[in-house]
Every structure is written in C-alpha cells, then in structure tokens.
Write a structure and sequence with these properties.
The protein is mainly β. Helices cover 9% and strands 46% of the residues. A hairpin with a 2-residue loop joins strand 14 and strand 15. It is globular and about 40 Å long.
Length: 263
C-alpha cells in the first residue's frame, strides 16, 4: 500500500468511528421498549447509560437490559431501592432502609453506587438529610439531586443537592403544594427538571427548582431524557409478584407538560 492510499484509509476509518460514536451517544438507540422478565415488586425508576443499556429498579431487583429490553444481568438488592441515575460509568440509586413519609428521624436514606458494566456494588453514601426517605435522584453538572417522601400536612417538596463526593450542599424548596407521598422519580431533560409523583401528577421546574408547571401526567415509575425532544416514561405491566414495565415515548406538549401519543 502506498503512503497516499494509507493516509486515505486512516482518514476513512477515523471518520467512520467518529460517526458511529456520535450516533451512539445521541440516544438514537432508545425508544419504546418492554423489559423482559417478571419481578415481585413494581418499578421505582429507570435510567440509561446514554449509549446502549437501560437500568431498571424493581424495588428489590436491579436489572440491566439492552435497548430492546433483553436482560443482560440482574441482581437482588435491599428493600427499598428507588429511582436511579447514570454518571461516568456508574449507576446511582436512591435507597431508604427506614420508613417513608414520616416525620424526621424515621428514615434511613442512602445512595448505593453500582458499576454499570456488571452491577457490582462499589460504594454506599449516607444522605440522611433526606429526612422523609430517599426515593429518587438525578445528576446534573457533576452534582447529585435526591428527592423522596413527604408526610401529610407539608405543602412543599424538597430537592437535596450533593457534591460528587456526596457532601451535602443545600436543600432546595419546590413550591408545589402537597403531593401524595412526595416525589418518586426525577430527571433533567429538555432544559427542565421533571418530578414524577403518584396520582398522575408531574412537576416541572427550571434548573434552579422554580416551579413552572404542575400537570396531570403520570411519570411516577420512571422518566428519562433521551434527546431530540423525546422523554421516556415508564408504565406498569402486571400486578403482585408478576410485574414488569415498559417505556413509552413522550414529548413536550403545547401546555408545557408531557404527552404520550395515543394515551
């Protein structure tokens, strides 16, 4: 091979790799999907690795699937593993080992950290500032946001902000009014935070947690931004000890809330 042809081949190879990586990282692999298998507890949250895998938290089972829902690996975990997020090769899960939705002092709030590749446990961080029970979380700009339960009689929700080393930084107040047992799921997508609450209720805030919307929409089992104006929201399949879940594609509607075509 002459030098000119060799240079051309190298340039072609590099260009091909670049295109492949760009396509994978764009989230184009993710769409509506059903998780294989049946689980004894309902889904608490979902996240992706932003490339080709989906992570599903079924309360006592943590599951990794490919983008088509095929199970790659799964592990049994402590009750109650909640919503989760992905950051730099690791999966972070909001965990409460105590009571939810009670006055301060009865929760036992943690973030468990798993290696995305094989779901091996690599760390546990106390987040006891989440006094009503850690149930959901997200990451943004290198920081972690944890949300959770809420007792009756409290007319606002809270977002607890942590450093990359899980040093507590501050608590943000969300002027949402009371939501049934607080916030279940959380994601930052399309420039906004989306909070999934039971009772088919979704809160939307700006990046500083100022409330921008309170919508009659259900994303309490999982919400994920995948880019291109699309957000995946989870739906329950089955009941009792024979449960699974699926993801539907939502977009931002004219009223600023989320809409799933056909629902």
């Amino acid at each position: 091979m002459n030098k000119q042809r060799f240079h051309f081949s190298c340039r072609s190879f590099i260009a091909a790799v670049f295109v492949a990586v760009a396509f994978t990282a764009s989230g184009s692999d993710f769409s509506a999907v059903t998780c294989d298998g049946l689980y004894r507890h309902h889904l608490q949250g979902v996240c992706t690795d932003e490339q080709s895998a989906i992570f599903w938290s079924f309360t006592t089972t943590l599951v990794k699937t490919d983008a088509k829902g095929k199970v790659l690996t799964k592990i049994e975990v402590a009750n109650h593993h909640g919503d989760l997020c992905f950051h730099e090769g690791l999966v972070y899960v909001a965990v409460n080992l105590g009571q939810f939705n009670r006055p301060a002092g009865q929760a036992d709030s943690w973030v468990y950290v798993y290696r995305a590749e094989d779901l091996s446990l690599v760390a546990k961080h106390e987040v006891q500032e989440v006094v009503h029970g850690a149930g959901g979380m997200a990451s943004r700009d290198g920081k972690f946001i944890v949300v959770g339960g809420l007792p009756e009689g409290i007319d606002e929700n809270y977002a607890y902000i942590y450093s990359p080393k899980f040093e507590f930084l501050e608590r943000k107040v969300i002027e949402s009014g009371h939501t049934n047992v607080g916030v279940q799921t959380l994601a930052f997508a399309e420039g906004k935070f989306w909070f999934g609450c039971y009772g088919e209720r979704t809160l939307k805030t700006d990046p500083e947690f100022k409330l921008e919307g309170n919508f009659g929409f259900d994303c309490a089992l999982g919400v994920i931004g995948i880019g291109d104006g699309k957000i995946l929201v989870a739906r329950r399949i089955g009941e009792g000890q024979q449960q699974s879940a699926r993801l539907a594609v939502a977009t931002v509607g004219k009223d600023g809330g989320l809409v799933v075509e056909g629902e």
